[in-house]
Specification:
The chain is an all-alpha fold. It contains 7 helices and no strands. Helix 2 crosses helix 4. The relative contact order is 0.15.
Amino acid sequence: MQAAWLNWLEGLHATPVALAMRQSSWLYPTVEILHILGFCALVGAAGLFDLRLLGFSRHIPVQQMAAHLLPVAWGGFVLAAPSGFLLLMADAPSIGTSPIFLSKMALVGLAGLNAWVFHTRVGRSVQAWNQGVNPPLAAKLAALGSLLIWVAVVALGRLIAYLE
């Protein structure tokens, strides 16, 4: 399995796109800016929704907030994921084997799992606590977990460039 992963990373590194990412003086920074903007949209939207679930701004209906923020979060993800893949391609053998990168990817998966569990379980009863009341403990725990996970993802993302 590890050999297959390393071969795949080497293959990515050898592609013309990866070569362009390494050789162009503007491509890598442009993609990095897009990745950061995507993450800002994703984590910003998730963070605002999480704060609402933790009980802030109870006068704003949860369903209305979700309707406004979920498309922003998805848009951020759609921008961050492919741009992150391009950043990985530029130095795939090094980044792809970094425990920091692998931890970041595991936490992104955990954040997605947390959101899926929230929306398929606790989120189904949102009409009972949509506005003016405290969300249930399960919603607050999901929100707290989401906030902590996303902070860790951002921190690990920044550390990839500095630690191996």
